[in-house]
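We both want to read discrete structure tokens more fluently, so let's practise on a single case. Would you write everything just below, so we can both look at the same thing?
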Amino acid sequence: MKDLKFLMLDLPEDVNRLVIYGDFDKALELIDLYMTRNIPQILKKRLDFEKDRIRRFKEDYTYSFDEALALAQENIEDFTMEELEYIKNARYADWIYINGEVKFHNKFLENSIKVHPTFEKRLIHPRKDAPEVLDKAIQYIIENGEIKYFIHVKTGLKLNPKYARKEEIIRVHLPIPRKSQQIENIHIINTSHEPKVIAPTNHPQRTIYFEEVVKGEDEFTVEYSYESHIKYKDISPNKVSQNQPTFYTEEWLPHIRFTPFLVELAHSIVEDEKNPLLKAWNIYNYITRNVQYSYVRQYASIVNIPEYAAYNLKGDCGIQAMLFITLCRIVGIPARWQSGLVVNPYSIGSHDWAEFYIEPYGWLFADPSFGGGALRRGNKKRWKFYFGNVDPFRMVANSEFQYDFYPEKKFLRQDPCDNQTGEMEYLDRPIFQNEYEVIQKIIEVKKI
């Protein structure tokens, strides 16, 4: 996973034209032709990766214009063709060309309802509002200085019987909590199978590893508990130390890359500011005000994640976090990845955010997507909270971006960058996301 530098290579122009147009069959033929030529090994790796990238495009972009319109009209009152054109052009609905035809992302409607200011109010079948736990927790943290939660969940992967190759060996990695500044008292309570390896608590992408013979109705699960201890940090630029560290300020190729475009953007954001806390605030402020939340294609199909966010001014939680981390590093502020799950009493799901380091405070949190969502709804208190602090409803499995498992996975991962749901593979090929189901179950979440 640490050797993906071939992503910094561009494609041959004829291959690139075909991919942009969405003529994937022709692009694959041309890639195979290039592979027979006398070209450097690094370009062969890039072309081979492009074949997998095309597979992911086909998985992600499934709705034609007419199908997207019909789906939207089934869910949103008085939805029109003009509105579909609008959300397509205004970055609410992600799309690409496939064989010259517009194809919408399979989560275009979910994203549009989440982000567009009026669609949720026009739902034909309104959704029930979940009890508001975030603002209550945030208020408690600010008033009391800290909060602690006990969290108990069960997660895993279930192999689709259609893709079960009976009597063959399957290798499974499931994410589990790692030791971090807010995570303590981690316990593995139960597993579906005897684990072959449990990675150390400080491994940057921690997993529990199974290796079993496929039976046909295979479900791999881990049940664990942990405590989330959050201490409030009341940060002030006036208290920032003059001397600051330089760790976590380097590039981490291919994604944390100091390209001319990102360097120019970073310096235009911070301008002449010298205080590192205010520099980080300016970056957070820029992202939360300008980068629109959007479900996007699989990370493995994006060759430079921070530039994707900065060029398109859109991205999900991880893409926004990567932009924050990269811009911070460019201006000399230590910044790193953190991700796993959001687990509160009512919901569970994948999430990514960032940490940045300022003396004398140490590692601080930044969650641009939660902060941007709060700002979008006019909740400035929550927006400001997510610069420096974080809520207690997190499970941290990863502290580094694009890092190998222990033991390493043999084939390219479904997500080469991160790990929130798990990975599976046979001895001769990876197992793709359409071949399994994700298991995420809340057992108990309580304040302690």
